[in-house]
Design goal:
The protein is mainly alpha-helical. It is built from 8 helices and no strands.
Length: 132
């Protein structure tokens, strides 16, 4: 027995993912506060938090973390929100994720490996507990 997903639900999910990508923190917070899961995940395993971090929206990362988004989720490519923030060299998002307890060594493409691969010494220093 196959159940189809209501097209309105699919449209809402698409809108919420777009809000995360676009950095619309307040509007995204309102959706999460109204019941959209903070850990909503797309077909590639990307959470709202991963998308916000990848698109360098530190305020959106903070809003999602405040609402219980799981910083330890790993997408289908082995990436985490912390790894995405490191890749984008978003110091504010990296600090927020680390303060929330994100693990720099989690995932097949961990934040630490990302910093090393792309030769990002400032990000490596942040991950090691240093930085400015």
């Amino acid at each position: 027995m196959s159940r189809s997903i209501d097209p309105d639900v699919i449209a809402l999910a698409g809108r919420v993912f777009d809000l995360a990508r676009g950095g619309h923190a307040a509007e995204l917070a309102a959706y999460v506060d109204a019941g959209v899961p903070a850990d909503l995940t797309n077909d590639k395993g990307d959470t709202l938090l991963i998308l916000a971090a990848y698109h360098a929206h530190a305020a959106t990362v903070a809003v999602l973390l405040e609402r219980g988004a799981d910083h330890g989720r790993v997408n289908d490519r082995g990436q985490t929100a912390l790894g995405a923030a490191v890749f984008r060299q978003d110091e504010v998002a990296v600090r927020a994720l680390l303060d929330a307890g994100a693990d720099p060594d989690l995932g097949g493409q961990s934040a630490r490996l990302t910093a090393q691969f792309f030769d990002l010494p400032a990000m490596t220093a942040l991950l090691d507990g240093g930085g400015s």
